[in-house]
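Module 6 notes. Inverse folding takes a fixed backbone as the condition and produces residue identities as the prediction. Think of it as a translation problem where the source language is geometry and the target language is the twenty amino acids. Below is one complete input and output pair. Work through it position by position during the lab.
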């Protein structure tokens, strides 16, 4: 029933106006799945390779499509993804592109779910999945590689940890986003938006901490449940010549660790992603040792959703959580394996979008299927609300 009968690939627009790969998968009983690859700006050095979409599509048509059509069942995700790996033949999808691979992998999952008549989260998570819903981490203020002339820290993320439901959490983040805009207005600071729809004001990181803290506590008072905040420092992007660059100032690794630890305590941060360079397992381990009992230290560029890099991190105690981005590694199977290895080792898996996105909402299902405590998917703008609104629908459907 789920035997794949066709795989169509095309270029579509992403949220930055760049082309990306979209895949349509059809099965013999009429099951249909469509998915598109997202794309990063602050990409990790060890991510799977994203090829120019035209090249990725041509290579996938040549190598992968003939091995999938009439041969593989969309309902068997491991078989689909193993076929993509075999068709590619490299370690990092440098032949067919991780963008083609992930689009096909996700489209096949949707086609498999369609045949079964089950929602995607149910198909991926199975009957015995947990019944938790992720707390959305909402990007409210940011800069780094996502906006010019803004903060050095890439993302200040609202985290409505006390929200009674997904829907209330989603609306709480939108309120924090709106409140931050008012505070910026009151301070006379003009603010454009960055790639993910966060405000990108020309303020110092210290000011952004203050604005964020005020916005979060105002909305917390209004809504009556706990809202905290966290960061994606994306420190690899700041790290050059052995030091971290904050505009004209620099911090050594020790100073960076002290700074992050201080911010965790001063602002009661619930989440800190990529506080150190992607090669600094030791620094990650030291910081996790210092503050890991009270906050999540999450590896994004550090782990790139890769089980080998995650295992290296587990061996030395670097981080207590991992960011999961299917396109960083190329298939849903690889993403699930990373989630499984993390949870077997007591680490939280946080499912994430990319700064370049489409209206594809697969990650909302992935977060529910894997019982993730958090999902990082922005706050406003269509390509972000596509995932948030899907989460609300899933919660509606599942309870
Ligand atoms: O660093 C990140 O976590 C992501 C998403 O917020 O950004 P990018 O997709 O540019 O890597
Ligand atoms: Mg990141």
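Target side of the pair, the amino acids:
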């Amino acid at each position: 029933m789920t035997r794949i009968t066709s795989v169509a690939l095309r270029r579509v627009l992403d949220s930055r106006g760049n082309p990306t790969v979209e895949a349509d998968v059809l099965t013999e009983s009429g099951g249909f799945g469509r998915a598109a690859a997202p794309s990063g700006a602050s990409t990790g050095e060890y991510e799977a390779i994203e090829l120019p979409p035209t090249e990725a599509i041509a290579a996938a048509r040549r190598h992968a499509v003939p091995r999938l059509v009439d041969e593989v069942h969309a309902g068997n995700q491991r078989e689909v993804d193993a076929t993509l790996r075999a068709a590619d033949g490299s370690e990092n999808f440098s032949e067919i592109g991780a963008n083609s691979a992930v689009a096909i992998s996700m489209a096949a999952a949707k086609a498999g779910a369609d045949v079964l008549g089950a929602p995607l989260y149910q198909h991926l998570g199975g009957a015995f999945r947990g019944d938790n819903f992720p707390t959305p981490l909402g990007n409210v203020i940011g800069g780094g590689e996502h906006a010019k002339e803004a903060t050095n820290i890439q993302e200040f993320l609202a985290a409505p940890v006390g929200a009674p439901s997904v829907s209330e959490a989603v609306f709480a983040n939108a309120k924090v986003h709106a409140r931050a805009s008012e505070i910026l207005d009151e301070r006379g600071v003009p603010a454009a938006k960055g790639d993910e729809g966060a405000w990108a004001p020309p303020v110092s990181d210290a000011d952004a901490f203050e604005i964020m803290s005020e916005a979060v506590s105002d909305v917390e008072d209004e809504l009556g449940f706990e809202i905290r905040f966290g960061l994606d420092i994306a420190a690899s992007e700041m790290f050059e010549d052995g030091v971290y660059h904050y505009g004209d100032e620099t911090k050594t690794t020790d100073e960076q660790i002290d700074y992050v630890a201080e911010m965790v305590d001063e602002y009661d941060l619930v989440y800190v992603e990529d506080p150190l360079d992607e090669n600094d397992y030791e620094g990650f381990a030291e910081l996790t040792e210092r503050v890991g009992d009270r906050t999540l230290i999450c590896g994004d560029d550090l782990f790139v959703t890769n089980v080998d890099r995650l295992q290296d991190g587990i061996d030395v105690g670097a981080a207590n959580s991992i960011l999961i981005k299917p396109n960083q590694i190329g298939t849903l199977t690889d993403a699930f394996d990373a989630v499984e290895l993390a949870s077997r080792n007591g680490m939280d898996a946080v499912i994430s979008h990319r700064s370049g996105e489409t209206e594809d909402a697969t990650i909302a299902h992935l977060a529910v299927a894997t019982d993730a405590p958090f999902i990082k998917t922005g706050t406003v703008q269509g390509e972000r609300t596509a995932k948030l609104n899907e989460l609300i629908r899933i919660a509606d459907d599942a309870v």
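Reference fact for the lab report: The CA atoms of residues 125 and 370 lie 6 Å apart.
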